[in-house]
Amino acid sequence: MGRTYFVEEAVGQYLSDLGTKVKPYVTGLLIGQCSPQRDYVIRAVRTPPKEEQKESNIGPSNLASLDEEWITTHASQVVSRMLPGGLLVLGVFIIVTPELSKDSQNALRKLIFSVEKSLTKRRLWKPAEEEVSDRAALQICSSTKKVVCRTYDVQDPKSSAKPADWKYQSALSASWLVLGCTINVNIHIPLLATSLNHDLEKNTKNGLNRWSKQIEDSVFLINGQVRDNETELLEGQKKSRGNTQSSTQLSDVKVLAQLSQGSSCRSTATVQVCSGSINLRGSVKCRAYVHNNKPKVKEAVQALKRDIINTLSDRCEILFEDLIINEGPHKKNFEREYHVLPQRLFVPLAGSSVMLSDYKFGDETTGEIQERFVEMLDQSVQAEDIHIAEEINTGKYCVQE
């Protein structure tokens, strides 16, 4: 039996509108959440057109010219900047003219595995054994509007297509549950003397990798309580009739890091010659969203853990990209430098309790943020809807000799 995708009605309208605008085909991402029983699609986002396509509004003439690298880069940027905990790329879609329908499934299969490979490279966490690894390949005919949904298991390179149900539903994410926390960060990362030119990006990633394991092993208090992983997140909470606000309230989470891993996880101390260090200090805001169909505590905690790990890793990655753009890739003088990590902000998704995220540096304007949402998520954002989550000096990246 195949998987079932419950899809926000607005997604159907978006895909229908998209099919009338771009010819002969358009590709994009499906964004939502997996659960053991079913998957939820709350957003579809087309692949941004390249500069030469923006004026003509005409895409490549055939599927052989499909730009796989451009599509996977878009997916990586959406995941690293725009998606809070709990949301992921559930698959890809293609809207094609009848003449190209025959070849589109092969193109979709190739894209699904390419996107997943790109996203896996940058993760600092490993998927759980029981985690859903099926991803959707959605094909829509621009003339007949016929929808064909299949899935592929991205953990199996030889996976064959399985049929899946695609069902539209109104107000799908209107009352999702949200968990939030503030994490105080103080990470010290040594720079080995043997590290060529202080390979900052590599050293930072190694340090964050060690830190991410501490987050994975931490104890999470939900509204002040330790909850059993297998219990329902809403267990013991009363819903008032006719009021969905009670189910969308933010649950406050505290993260308690373990001071000791116990005798079974002893490690041997080593002495290494270092020529400097990196210090990551500050407070970061983290947030995760969970569907409201009897979610378990472990689903919510897992989503929040990943947001904590991702948000710090993503900020460092964005900072490095900014340094390369502004100071060049060969800059070697990093003596006692301080850099402010980008702030996090949240923007509401229309008709939903879910908010999408982004990051901004202090000198970025509201207009630049709005442009990025249009380019990355094909979404217009009003200035008053941009909610800055943190103070400007909450995250600092310090390199010192």
UniProtKB/TrEMBL annotation:
Pfam families named among the record's database cross-references: ODR4-like
Subcellular location as annotated: Membrane
Spans traversing the lipid bilayer: none
GO cellular component labels: endomembrane system; membrane
Main location (coarse class): membrane
Swiss-Prot/TrEMBL keywords: Membrane, Transmembrane, Transmembrane helix
GO biological process entries: intracellular protein localization
Alphabetical list of InterPro entries matching this protein: ODR-4-like
Protein family per UniProt: Belongs to the ODR-4 family.
Function (record text): May play a role in the trafficking of a subset of G-protein coupled receptors.
PANTHER family registered for this protein in UniProt: PROTEIN ODR-4 HOMOLOG
Protein name, UniProt field: Protein odr-4 homolog
Lineage: Eukaryota, Metazoa, Chordata, Craniata, Vertebrata
